[in-house]
Amino acid sequence: MTVRNGSVLFVTVLLGLTLGTGLLATARQNAIQQRIVDLPMEQASQIYIGADDDDTVAAKPVITQQYPADHPAAVHPVLRWSRIDGAVMYDVQILTRHEEEHEDGTAQNVYYEPLMPLQRTYTTGCQLALPENFTGNTFYWRVRALALDGRPVSEFSNLAQVYIDRTLPATEKPTTLSRYNKGNGTVLLYPVYDWIAIPGADHYEVEVLDDKPENPNDIAPSAHRIDSYAPRYAQQYDQKSRMADRPFYWRVRAVDSTGGPIGVYSDAQPYLTDPAANYGVAIFGDSISHGGGSISYSPTDWEFSYGSYLYFPTVNLSQSGDTSAMSSERFERDVVPFHPKYVLILMGSNSLREGVPAANVIADMKSVKAKCQENGIHPVFLTVPPVNPDNIKKAFDQDTVWNWQSQFDQVNSYIRSQVHIDITSDMADENGELRTDLALDGLHMDPPGKKMMADAINAAWPEITALPDSAWEE
């Protein structure tokens, strides 16, 4: 590839928010601009792309939404692609194709020019608002994955052509990403709502409904609204538990800076978390159990949930941001109504790394165990994984208490005296810290880490279920 007229690339550095909504809640989109590296080819005025597209290259996104001539897009197309391991964000190049000609009129070189600035996104999709002065009926695009500091962690995807039909209706409605009740690990007591950002949106309005809306794809609130949120970015962690014997629904619309609607509400998406569904096993804990990771990915990116890799069904009763005291306080409210036979408990990480003494965390664990025993539930504690303070600092700008390792060791010693599953074997590096390849942000496991957790649970589960009730009476 050769380029002309290089320019400086600006990337976005993510900062974390508070534990109150979970570190992953909006970290992916709370950002500041910072110049970090000069990569002239990324915003060159002319880009030459050789015949080097190679589908055997593993580390590049695969485009999953195509717009061929017989199935064109409207003027605000949604672009979609596959996830790349190690990616925190993605840059999308939007290009037009040009040809240089010989004097005799024959084609010489094909090159591409940027149609609009690089599109930075923290999900595997983006919606475009094409420039008003663009009158063509086709454009090209490609996408590349980036690390937290803006370094590429993949090749560019193969170049894709998009055909545009300007006669198609272009009603703005958000493309929702969260899908529930689709297999193991996809039932959450505390839902998370994700969608693809709408160009020009100042903020969004999320509706939680107790039935299907009577006014689908409208701009007015539904009569079935029971709650609402107004997030600035394209994600909302529900702060309330949602349990019922019939589905809830959620939908979202974009709002401009004057408070007016941009388009209409999205299609309403159902989810069901029924205490009477006879879930034999519950997952209980904080954000490590709730799901999500690599800073950008939500609990509804199911590859980031260890429950999705288990051999048996579960209901996930975890809440991002929980301290051990919070877990103990909400146990009767959130766990007991489901009457699971077993509950997989992973708690204490947030408390310990912030300096809460191990003795306090152990006391909270004992409290949870006592509540289990009072309600005929078998608690199965999971050992608490190590953390990586440097990576936590980079990802969330939060410090970790200096003596965290000794405090974690004390808690894990207690856990190993109970009915437990050791999930932490091989998670630590030579310094005793959580391996970066398992958790980019130093805390929340990425898919390799979640698979490791699930593998340990799956291997131990036959032995756990064979234990007599008396094993929990000690």
UniProtKB/TrEMBL annotation:
Location of the SGNH hydrolase-type esterase domain: 283-450
Pfam family, one: Lipase_GDSL_2
Gene3D superfamilies, A to Z: Immunoglobulins, SGNH hydrolase
GO molecular-function terms, A-Z: phosphatidylcholine lysophospholipase activity
GO BP, sorted A to Z: lipid metabolic process
SUPFAM superfamilies: SGNH hydrolase (SSF52266)
InterPro entries per UniProt: Ester_Hydrolysis_Enzymes (IPR051532), Ig-like_fold (IPR013783), Lipase_GDSL_AS (IPR008265), SGNH_hydro (IPR013830), SGNH_hydro_sf (IPR036514)
Coiled coil segments of this chain: none
Name of the molecule in the record: Lipolytic enzyme
The organism of origin for this protein: Megasphaera cerevisiae DSM 20462
